[in-house]
Amino acid sequence: MEDFRFLPDVVLVKAFRYLNLNDRANSALVCRCWADAFDHPSLWSTAQIVVQSCPPSRRPPDNSGDIPIQPPAPGPYIHWVQMSPPPSPPPPKRTTPSTPPLDQRIALLTHKGRLFRDLKLTVLYTQSNEFHNSEAEVIEALNENCCELDSLVLGVEKIQQLLPWHGPVEPEFDAAALLPIETYITSLRRLKKLTVRTWPRIGDEDTDPTMTLLNTLSNNTNVHNMKELNLLWAVVNHAWSVSRSALPSEDELVMLLGKLTSLERLSTLMSLLTENVLATFARPRRTKLMVLTLLVAYQTRQQRYWPYNYERVSFDETEIPSTVWKTVRENNPKLTVNLTFTSQIQHVDFSAILKPYVPLVSIEFMKYSKCTSQCLVLLAELYSSSLEVYKDFSDNSNGVDRELIELALKCTRLSCFVHHGIIGYDTVLSIAEARKESLESFDVLENHIAIEDYGCNQDNDDDNDECMFLWQQKAREERRIKERRNAMLVSLYGNVSLYMSRQWKASII
Fold first, then answer.
1. Are 450 and 488 in contact (CB under 8 A)?
2. How far, in Å, are 13, 91, 208, 353, 363 from residue 231 at the CA level?
3. How far apart, in whole angstroms, are the C-alpha atoms of residue 241 and residue 239?
4. What is the distance of C-alpha 296 from the center of its chain?
5. Other Cβ atoms within 10 Å of 310 Cβ, number
6. Rounded Cα distance, 485 and 452, in Å
7. Residues with Cβ within 8 Å of residue 487, at least 6 apart in sequence
8. What are the two backbone dihedrals, phi and then psi, of residue 410, each rounded to the nearest 5 degrees?
9. Is residue 448 pLDDT above 70, yes or no?
10. pLDDT at position 86, please?
11. What is the per-residue pLDDT for 179?
């Protein structure tokens, strides 16, 4: 067997990618060659850090009581959980000093933080709005060593955002608690992509504009060359969870987008896209906007005198005029719009969103949404020459087979078709026949393919003497239907594969 010390660096680095941080550190002790592979910059380009505040009653002593948790690879992951102080009497002190776990984490940020390029930062505020000394040191290490990032995913949350709050009024949140995070955002340089998942709400009394996230980004001139901005757009695994995040004002968003003149991709909530916000992309001397991704979900506004009563804000209240869309399309000729629906939308709001002057390319319905037959008719009529992607992950049991076939026939550029609802056998075959090789992605669920009952229907006598044999007849009939269904599915897979010129099979869940 050849000596592993003579493996090429490319092979060693690729093998190290499958190891977590502890295993990488142990492997680096083998030889100098492996130690050099451990320090390769590509292994430290991705990192994930979680910081959380601690209530005063549960604050551990400085540099003690923190236990690191190491999840699997890829990328170094830094996560610590606050533990209560040790019970009395305390254990005897060691004669030889030992390095606490926190020092190892700060050493990691100090020595490897300059190599981080893609960072996911989660800040969780519990009952306290302050960080104790150990967490403050970690944030300070971020400010000093993790400023040369290409991509940042930021999630700043209060515990009330993650757990249901049953009190009449949410606990007050001090805006000064966000100063360490805003200081870190101010220190960022050459950032190309920013994703803001959540940002905590602040009471009405805190109206200082310098305390908002968007104004902090506007004041940092080093990030004005950003190429992609994802603002409060967070969907995981085709589902959606409600997050009570703070929504920026229209003036703040307009001011930020006006300074991000190199922005090419924007993802945000549909409720934040107003006439003035969209008009910023029609201004001269700025980079052409390429992709606009919108998350469509109903927003609620709390009534003034009753904290438990919310009224839904309809999309037709903030409908953007067609003249604004036409002006934006003239200044951004390659602009494409992607829509993602997270909840059931009324037909009135569908009509307010789906307009012929919107350059819609992709539409997606998440798990808790619903695509009706009226929506499919609008898509086929308005976007027959632009729609490329249709995805429906909802459990739609309504009969929309005729509308699905019409959508596949009229939309000449449709290349991705996903439908996880009930769909007929003939509908699957008709869609494949209509799109053929141009359908690059075609996904339906096998157990949702509706096939006619091919069982044998026999007339049974009403003689009571034969009742004991009815269950045997029923079992044989069910087995015959199952065999017939499997045979029909095999035939369907073969015919669809012939139309698409490649092997195809429905998904199984």
1. no
2. 34, 48, 21, 20, 19
3. 7
4. 14
5. 12
6. 9
7. none
8. -85, -35
9. yes
10. 43
11. 83
pLDDT at res. 5 = 64
Q: What is the H or E stretch that residue 78 is in?
A: strand 77-82
Confidence of residue 335 (pLDDT cuts 50, 70, 90): very high
**Secondary element (H or E) of residue 406:** helix 401-410
What percent of the chain is predicted at pLDDT more than 90?
Answer: 28
- Pull the structure tokens for residue 231: 């603002």
Residue whose C-alpha is closest to residue 161's, from 151, 143, 173:
173
Q: Residue length, the chain?
A: 509
Q: What whole-number distance in Å separates Cα of residue 165 and Cα of residue 37? A: 49
Q: Measuring CA to CA, which residue among 359, 350, 339 is closest to residue 296? A: 339
The Cα–Cα gap between 328 and 281 comes to 6
For the purposes of burial, counting CB atoms within 10 Å of the CB of 502, is it exposed (0-12), middle (13-18) or buried (19 or more)? exposed
Calculate the CA 409 to chain-centre distance: 31
Whose tokens are 């699905």? That residue is 404
- Average confidence (pLDDT) over 174-191: 84
Q: pTM here?
A: 0.79
Q: Please give the backbone phi and psi of residue 16, each rounded to the nearest 5 degrees, phi first.
A: -65, -25
Average pLDDT over residues 39-51: 84
Amino acid 161 reads: Q
Rounded distance between C-alpha atoms, residue 341 and residue 362, angstroms: 11
pLDDT at 306: 34
DSSP string for 168-190: SSPPP--GGGGHHHHHHHHH-BS
Q: Which two tokens stand for residue 85?
A: 């102080």
pLDDT at position 1 over 50: no
**What percent of the residues of the chain are helix, what percent strand, and what percent coil, each to the nearest 5?**
40, 20, 40
- Output the CA–CA distances (angstroms, integers) from residue 27 to 18, 19, 20, in the order listed: 12, 9, 11
Tell me if 385 sits within 8 A of 412, measured CB to CB: yes
